[in-house]
Amino acid sequence: MASHPSETDIDQHPGNRIGSAPPRTRAWRDGKVQAEGFPVAEVSDYLERPGVVVWLDLCGPGPADLRVISEELGLDHLAVEDAVSRHERAKIDRYDRYAFLNVYVPRVDGGDLVLHEVSAFLTERALVTVRQDCGFDVDALIHRWDESPDIGETGAGFLLYGLLDLVVDLQLDAVQSLDDEADEVEALVFDDVFPVKEIQRRSYRLRKNLVALRRVALPMREVVNTLLRRDLRLVAPSLAPYFQDVYDHTLRVGEWTDGLRDLVANLLDTRLALQGNRMNEVMKKVTSWAAIIAVPTAVTGFYGQNVPYPGFSEHDGFVVSTIVIIVCSVGLYVIFKWRDWL
């Protein structure tokens, strides 16, 4: 758990830190945008108006920013600490008047999986998103909200649906990228060139990425399933089909990830088996050529004896030995080729 911020930390402005951005605000009423870009201190003023739904986004916030929003919405300090703490697990926590959840947005960059942490506070008519960096595109989230007319009817719950739906879609995109990488590794495994070092490097990186993605994707089932519980009343009953669709997608991400992990493990076993088979082929060829070379060695060794034999010290002896070498060597080559030893 993070320690309480000092006065020095509170005085720091978020814009001075890497990966931070100015806060973004928006208010809806009856499904239409009523205001946008208003100060964070006016969030409570908009919430006092009936039927108004407010969204606030904080990117790379400092303690001062969270202190303001904590006062505006009455957030618990434990939830605020979780929002600023890095590497929190994907989860959802239920408080008296709001819920806090933490999710991860994956992105495959150059073969490496990068995870961007996003936290959110959900009240009946407000959604506050807290991003650790600018890796999560909020413009895509706003575009998804603008395409739907249901915001005014279901309150902040529909804003949360848009957020989770986008997060799960990005997780599906990440799994698809890793699936494509698995296909490339499979092609390398069965390639005639068989680049062992590249296969080992890419397969290890792929397994590492799959483990990281599975670690943040599996808890999403619990998050969405908790939101679907009617006894907790976190979202309106009319939103249940929407969140059920997100839940189905989370199951798909988990099953797809597990399937890819099994595929990579099978590819590694196949690589070892193929490597052993290739070694056997090499040994078979080396042994065959050694047998062929052994024939002229034996013949020339025999004709190198210092005792009389047919053709000794005569030209006919050289001709006979040469014929024996050629006939035996060609015969062995034909036999080995016929048995697929060469």
From TrEMBL:
Stored CDD domains: TmCorA-like
Amino acid composition bias (Basic and acidic residues), ranges on this chain: 1-14
Pfam family, one: CorA
Membrane-crossing segments per the record: 286-305, 317-336
InterPro entries associated with the record: CorA_cytoplasmic_dom, CorA_TM1_TM2, MgTranspt_CorA/ZnTranspt_ZntB
Segments of this protein annotated with the region Disordered: 1-26
Subcellular location: Cell membrane
Membrane keyword on record: yes
Protein keywords: Cell membrane, Membrane, Transmembrane, Transmembrane helix, Transport
Main location class: membrane
Keyword Protease: no
SUPFAM superfamilies linked to this entry: CorA soluble domain-like, Magnesium transport protein CorA, transmembrane region
Annotated membrane topology: Multi-pass membrane protein
Domain of life assignment: Bacteria
Family recorded in the similarity comment: Belongs to the CorA metal ion transporter (MIT) (TC 1.A.35) family.
Protein's recorded name: Magnesium transporter CorA family protein
Natural source organism: Actinomadura graeca
Organism lineage string: Bacteria, Bacillati, Actinomycetota, Actinomycetes, Streptosporangiales
